[in-house]
Amino acid sequence: MFFTVPGLRNSDEAHWQTQWEKQLPNQFQRIQQEDWAHPDRETWVNQIEKTLQAYPSEEIVLIGHSVGCATIVHWWNTFQKPVRAAMLVAPSDVEREDYPAYITGFSPMPLVTLPFPTLVVASTDDHVVSLARASYFARCWGAKLHVVENGGHLEGKSGFGPWPKGWDLLHNFVSRIETIDYGN
Predict the structure, then answer these.
(1) Cis peptide leading into 108, omega within 30 of 0?
(2) What percentage of the chain reaches a pLDDT higher than 90?
(3) Is residue 135 part of a domain?
């Protein structure tokens, strides 16, 4: 089961997360948040945990975007429950000096090795995270890094609506880890 974890203001109708959910509604579920306009780490992390409790961990693939990526990493750091995999797209740099003050509790970013296969997708010109920081996060998390040239924040308004190349990335990444035994 794929679980999308959107960032600030949720993923709109043009966003690839929404497009994928509509294309495969039986395979994708969105982690819903109470307040999309004012992300709060504790609330958002607890919502992931609450949603995932009903599913076997070996079947869960988390797909985050922006502050949703930070939420996933904080969720792991808090609950330390393994999942099958995670794809973290355009992880926002919650430690930037100009990071919005209404997004609370996400700094510092956990820089821990994630015990499940992880793919970080970053753009060369993202206004929310520099490629250097996204690369650093990927190294710290033990993740593979895929770089998109001039992709902006990898969202609908950056031209990433249905994002078939992103779907191919996810599909290829997950298909290569099908045989991993998590000991569950």
Answers:
(1) yes
(2) 95
(3) yes
| E strand spans, the chain | 2-5, 28-30, 61-65, 85-89, 118-123, 144-148
Instruction: Give the CATH number for residue 97.
Output: 3.40.50.1820
Could you tell me if 72 and 83 are in contact, meaning their C-beta atoms sit under 8 angstroms apart? no
Exposure of 175 in the CB half-sphere (CA atoms within 13 A)? 6
Specify the DSSP element, H or E, that contains 182.
Answer: none
pLDDT in tens, 67-80: 999 999 999 999 99
Tell me the DSSP string of 108-140.
SPP----SS-EEEEEETT-SSS-HHHHHHHHHH
**In terms of pTM, does the model score above 0.85?**
yes
HSE-CB for 51 with a 13 A CA cutoff: 23
Token pair in block for residue 42: 């504790």
Quote the domain boundaries for residue 18: 2-141
Q: What are phi and psi of 28, to 5 degrees?
A: -115, 140
Q: Which DSSP letter does residue 104 get?
A: B
